[in-house]
Amino acid sequence: MARPRLGTPRAGGDRQALSVLLAARRSAINASTEAQQQVFSMVIAAPEPIRARFRGQKLAAMLNTAASLRVHSSWDVETTSTVVALRTLARRAHAMLREARELQKAIVAIIRKWRPDLLEEFGVGPIVAATVLCAWSHPGRIHSEAAFAMLAGVAPIPANSGQVTTRYRLNRYGDRQLNNALHTVVQSRIQYQPATRDYVARRTAEGKTSREIKRCLARYVARDLYRLLESSPPRA
User: Fold this and answer.
1) What is this structure's pTM?
2) Are 232 and 112 a contacting pair, CB within 8 Å?
3) Is-contact 38 56, C-beta < 8 A?
4) Domain ranges of the chain
């Protein structure tokens, strides 16, 4: 109540639709990841005849092998139970990945109808775009680009104790999903965009650390996305 500006509720409609789809997809991804980790752990402790079938395989190949395992009547109870568990977990991981892909298709359809211009930005994929739209919601809700950067947790926080501030620390507050989305864009641009790589080289020569450079880049990305969302009208 002491704030000079009161918060504006987020909108429903397309934004809420993206929010629930993102939540469902995140749950499916987490379930698949957990099942994959369990498969990997069980293979390590499996009886030698079963472990030998997975030797030298990467995780994706291990999942395919585990999903196609069959039980033989000559096996003991330990081997049979291990095979049943591996097959169940591998098929669960595959099912959750298929579910996540279906949910992502629904997310892409909404974004292309609402704000397809976001997908044209370098490093912005459908999940990043959906996360940004869920946080931004609608024009005018976030009153400035600085407020959007603070919401994303990429606004610089002074780290000096004197009168002259030359160092900043990372912001651990704000919407962490939005923060992760912006850093995903930063990582993509550092790896694939020549202009960003030149910027990193220049700032490194100035003595900046990798974390400081990424914080600056995330702040720039937040500024660009906010200006795009506030200035460009949504397409019908």
Assistant:
1) 0.86
2) no
3) no
4) 13-114, 116-236
